[in-house]
Write a structure and sequence with these properties.
The complex is a heterodimer of chains A (289) and B (178). Chain A is of the alpha+beta class. Chain A has twelve helices and 14 strands. In chain B, helix 2 packs antiparallel against helix 5.
Chain lengths: 289, 178
């Protein structure tokens, strides 16, 4: 359980990171919080020649708000997303979601960008990015670009990032007044990866739902956005909508994985309950907002 | 894997208040550097992939898994291990004493990780609820105790009633003291 040998680079600017990635390509791996990468190395599931540690790149650790967007730097740690009052005020779903990730010792090191780039199918941040239509900012020696979350997650542990790309940050849209947010998960033990989970956001206009965004985690190789459910909710009354029924319909066509933790059929039943519960809580919050 | 010899890197950091200078391979984890290079064997290694919590140390005051950090990342950092949490005379600190009083350990392998985690948790949250205590303990595995004694130890360390008769009887009660 010792990592294999590697060369270590600790650049301090984004330009230095991208030129290192351009030089080493597939032989290099970016180290952020290390809470997924180091176990992968310890189990020798990967043997990169070069580790590029991005923890000393100050530009990756910034959070700022511009107009209707919260830009969160890639190396922002889960604990910051959990506790920073400005982040919680701008994008409440971030602060709601963070406590569900691992244990506090993991949250002290793990990062937003690392979780997105790792793209575990049961991870929380990919589902949040997808639900909120976040944009992933990417840099390489050929320039910067933004990738919509809907195009970012390709398959389990696979993203739209190329070997020379650095995930720089994430742009989350800020939702306005009358919004509510909720996260629901089922895990065998608190802190474990979820068997199934859902993140939900709703916004009301008067007593009608004006906007809804719902994404599932752990239900397939990538997070799943429930667009038909959202369309059904928009225009419905905030009270008296049969959430159990719409949630059941929304997950009926999904084909979640069977594994040692749960069967696909069990996951589908759990997901229906979690979706209804999350929507109820998000709507309750929206009504008070 | 690289086809050449990997050069060692010099790291300067503070461990338990002492300035240290290490020459390490980049792949050396902080846990191995503490145990092998600095002979601080209070930090234990169970799973070596971030699950068991036995290797928990404080880095700049925050509890982290020392098996998931490379020593080369610690340039300028302040590391505190379980050795650094005890008084210099070898007596027990209040968290350690609480584990002893409440049977919060049996074989003791996981205990250093628990002591460090609980120290960080109580520094952050001096008046925890039962639920918060159990949530905070989730990141450390103990295969002996069944955790009940550990939960009581955290309560004692937080100055709360532990709910255990034996722990209460060992201490003078308000009436007995008066």
């Amino acid at each position: 359980m010792k990592p294999p040998p590697f060369d270590y680079l600790a650049p301090t600017t984004v330009a230095e990171v991208t030129s290192a990635l351009a030089e080493h390509g597939d032989d290099a791996k970016v180290l952020a919080g290390g809470q997924s990468l180091v176990p992968v190395l310890a189990m020798r599931l990967a043997r990169p020649e070069v580790i590029v540690d991005v923890n000393r790149v100050a530009d990756l650790d910034r959070v700022h708000r511009e107009d209707g967007t919260l830009l969160v730097g890639a190396t922002t740690r889960h604990v910051t997303l959990e506790r920073d009052p400005d982040i919680a005020a701008a994008v409440p779903l971030l602060a709601r979601t963070a406590p569900h990730i691992g244990h506090f010792q993991i949250r002290n090191r793990g990062t937003l960008g690392g979780s997105l780039a790792h793209a575990d199918s049961a991870a929380e941040w990919p589902a949040v990015a997808l639900a909120l239509d976040a944009e992933i900012e990417v840099a390489s020696t050929s320039g910067s670009r933004r990738i919509p979350a809907a195009e970012f997650f390709v398959s389990t542990f696979m993203t739209a990032l190329g070997a020379e790309d650095l995930l720089v940050g994430v742009r989350f849209p800020v939702w306005g007044a009358g919004s509510g947010f909720a996260v629901e998960e089922l895990a065998r033990r608190s802190g474990d990866f979820a068997i199934a989970g859902v993140v939900a956001a709703v916004q009301r206009n008067g007593d009608r739902i004006e906007r809804a965004a719902v994404a599932l985690l752990g239900m397939g190789p990538v997070p799943i956005r429930l667009h038909p459910l959202e369309q059904e909710l928009v225009g419905s009354p905030t009270a008296s909508t049969d959430l159990d029924a719409v949630a059941r319909d929304a997950v009926a066509g999904l084909d979640p994985p069977d594994d040692v933790h749960a069967s696909g059929g069990y996951r589908r039943r759990v997901a229906a309950v979690l979706v209804a519960r999350a929507l109820a809580r998000a709507l309750q919050e929206a009504e008070g907002a | 894997m690289p086809d050449h010899e990997i050069p060692e890197i010099t790291v300067r950091l503070t461990v338990n208040g002492q300035p240290e200078r290490l020459r390490v391979e980049p792949r050396r984890t902080l846990a191995d550097a503490l145990r092998e290079d600095l002979a601080l064997t209070g930090t234990h290694l169970g799973c070596e992939h971030g699950v068991c919590g036995a290797c928990t140390v404080l880095v700049d005051g925050q509890a982290v898994r020392s098996c998931l950090l490379f020593a080369v990342q610690l340039e300028g950092a302040e590391v505190t291990t379980v050795e650094g949490l005890s008084p210099a005379d070898g007596s027990l600190n209040p968290v350690q004493q609480a584990f002893r009083d409440n049977h919060g350990l049996q074989c003791g392998f996981c205990t250093p990780g628990f002591i460090v985690s609980v120290t960080a948790f109580l520094a952050d949250n001096p008046h925890p609820t039962d639920e918060q205590i159990r949530e905070a303990l989730g990141g450390n595995l103990c295969r002996c105790t069944g955790y009940q004694g550990i939960v009581r130890a955290v309560k004692q360390a937080a100055g709360q009633p532990t709910g255990a008769r034996e722990a209460v009887e060992l201490r003078p009660t308000a009436q007995a003291a008066s």
